[in-house]
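Milestone M4 deliverable, item 7.
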Amino acid sequence: MHQHTATLQALRSYRFRKPKTFRAYLGLLQGMFLILFGAHGGIVLWSSVSGWVVVKLVVLVGILGAILSVSQSVLAQPQIIISLIVTDAAILFTTGSRGSDAAMLCAVMLLLAMSSYIGSVFDFGLLSSGLILGYGVVLQRDAALETEAVLVLPALLCLTLVFVSKLGLLDEEIQRLDE
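Output delivered:
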């Protein structure tokens, strides 16, 4: 039991170094998320735009503006990145669109990529699991869990594992270059 507690504690405290230019990557991912949400939310057809979609778009543009304008030290804080991603996910999952749409799946993958900029493996695992669970709830809402769309959930979990392994390799390479 003590070894399990020590392992869990080590996992919670392990931090990855973020690349110095992660703001550009995070901004790119947020911009792509905004474009996907616009296409997914029906913005292409202006006749079908509701007031809530416009409000959600303004919030997403505000998030992009915040990513590009706040200081790097503020943006590097895990709680800031987590709050941005949770806000994006809440906006995405409350659009009322079908969870099995390709745009929604791509947006979830973008959110998983954005969550990889959290420095902690534990926080990344928690957030990415929450995103996948949220997507599963959307699929359940759409009664799509009985279809082949449910196969996306294990694929997203595998994507999360790939991000974790790549984060570890990246951190080792950064440490090697610093020596």
